Amino acid sequence: MTKNVRVRFAPSPTGPLHIGGVRTALFNYLFAKKYNGTFVLRIEDTDQTRYVEGAEKYIIDALNWCDMAYDEGPGKNETFGPYRQSERKHLYKQYADELIASGNAYYAFDTAETLDFHRKDHETKGKTFIYNWHNRLKLSNSLSLSEEEVKAKLDAGEDYVIRFKSPQDETLHLTDIIRGDIKIDTNILDDKVLFKSDGMPTYHLANIVDDHLMEITHVIRGEEWLPSLALHYQLYKAFGWDAPEFAHLPLILKPTGKGKLSKRDGDKLGFPVFPLEWTDPKTKDVSRGYKEDGYFPEAMVNFLAFLGWNPGTEQEIFSMDALIEAFDLSRVNKSGARFDPDKTKWFNHHYMQEQNNDDLAELFKPIVDEKVNEIDINYIALVIGLIKERATFVSDLWGLSHFFFQAPNSYDEKASKKAFKEGTKELMQELVSIINGIEDFSVENLQTKIKGWITDNEIGFGKVMMPLRLALVGALQGPDVFDIMFMIGEKESIKRIETAIASL
C-alpha cells in the first residue's frame, strides 16, 4: 500500500451504536492500523430531526471502551475539521451549485402531493414510479421549465430540491474490494435528491464532499450502502475527483441466519446488541450493553472480527495487535454473517481466564461486599484463582465461590441423601479429630493426613469426601476440597463439619 491510508467511520447520532456499526468501525480501525494510516471519526448529523442528545458521546465512549480510539475527529487533531456535518453545511451548497452549472444536477420544484400522486398512479398500473430520464421532462424541474420560469420560482422563494441527473443508456463498471466487479445499467437508477428544501444536503452529497475534502482513500461501510455505490461513483466523476476504493461489509444476521440483526432483536432474543448500556433520553427505556452484561472489550472485539472475516487458519483467539497484523479485506466474506450468542460467551470465557486475578478481585469485591462483611481483597483474588476456570462473567463468581465467604445455610437434598448414610456421622466425627491433630494446616498436609487416614483404614474415598464436600459447600460442587479447607481455615472447617453432623 503506497498511498497514505485514510479511512473514516461516519455514524449518525440518532441513538445508541448498534454492534453492526461497531463492526464497521473495527474493520476500518484494523485496516488503518495495518497500513499505518489514519482512523477518522465523522459525525453525520445532517438530519437534525433524528438527532438524539447524548448519542455522539455514546459513540465516542463505545469506541474508547473497545480500544478503538479515533486518530482524528471531533476535538482531536482537527486537520480537516470540523467533523460534524451540521457544522460543515456552509460547504455543501457550493458543490450542489457546481453540479447544476456542469449539467450534472438540476432544480426540482415538484410538491410532495404531486410526487405522491405519480407514485399511486403508477401503483394502480402495476408499475413503480422512478424519478429519472423516463419522466423528468414531464415533471416540474429546471430541465422541463424555461430559464425564466426557473428564475421566477427561485426568486419567489419556492421550495425546491436539487437532484442528480442520472445518465441514460449507459453501463457503469464499478469495483468493490470485497465483491469484485459490478455492472450497473443506468436506466434503472433514479435521480437522487442531493440537496433538500431545508437547506441541508442529503447523505449522498455530504459524504462524497467530505470524503474528498478529508482525503479519504478507502470507504469501508455496510452492505446497506451498496445500492448507493453507482450514484457515489457518478458524483466523483461529475466533480472530476478521484474516487476512493470501496469495500462493502456483509450484513450481520439474526442467530437464525434469516434477516438482518436489528436494534430490537436484543430485547426480543435475550442478548445485548449495543456495546454500552443506553438510556433513551425521551422514554427512559434502558437497553442492555455488552460492558454492563459483563463482557470484556477484548472478547467483543474478537467475536466482532469473526463476523464476516476469517484469517484463513483455525486460529480464533486474536488480540487487537494480532488482528491488525492478520486483517485483510480480501478475506472478508460477501455473504451475511450469522450472529451466535453462545460463541460470544465462548470468547468471553476465554478472556475471563486471561484476566489478572487482582483485577478481577476489584470487579468482584462490590458483589462480595453486598453479601458479607468486609473481605480482604487479597483473599478474594486467591478465591478467584481457584474458581474462575468455570466462570464466563464476573457475575458468575459468587455462585461459584459463596462458600468461601459464608457457611452453607442449607444442604442440597439430593446430595444429602447420597452423601450422608449409615456410619457417615461416626466417620465425620473421626475426621474432625484427624483435622484437630494437623499442626501445619496447609493444602499438602491436609491431603496427606486425610487421604492417609482413609487409605490406612480401608475406607472408600467417596464415603468421606462426599459428606466432607457437602458439609463445606452445601452441595457436591466446587474446587478441590483441600483448597476450600485451607482457605476457610481449621476452625471454620471443623465448625461446618459439626454443623452438618447435627443437621443431617
From TrEMBL:
Matches recorded under Gene3D superfamilies: 1.10.10.350, Glutamyl-trna Synthetase, Domain 2, Glutamyl-tRNA Synthetase, Domain 3, HUPs
Family annotation (HAMAP family): Glu_tRNA_synth_type1
Motif ('HIGH' region): 11-21
Subunit description: Monomer.
Source organism: Flavivirga eckloniae
Motif extent ('KMSKS' region): 260-264
Protein localization: Cytoplasm
Entry-linked InterPro entries: aa-tRNA-synth_I_cd-bd, aa-tRNA-synth_I_codon-bd_sub2, aa-tRNA-synth_I_CS, aa_tRNA-synth_I_cd-bd_sf, Glu-tRNA-ligase_bac/mito, Glu/Gln-tRNA-synth, Glu/Gln-tRNA-synth_Ib_cat-dom, Glu_tRNA_lig_a-bdl
Gene Ontology terms: cellular component: cytosol
Residue intervals of the Glutamyl/glutaminyl-tRNA synthetase class Ib catalytic domain: 4-346
ATP-binding among keywords: yes
Protein name as it appears in the record: Glutamate--tRNA ligase
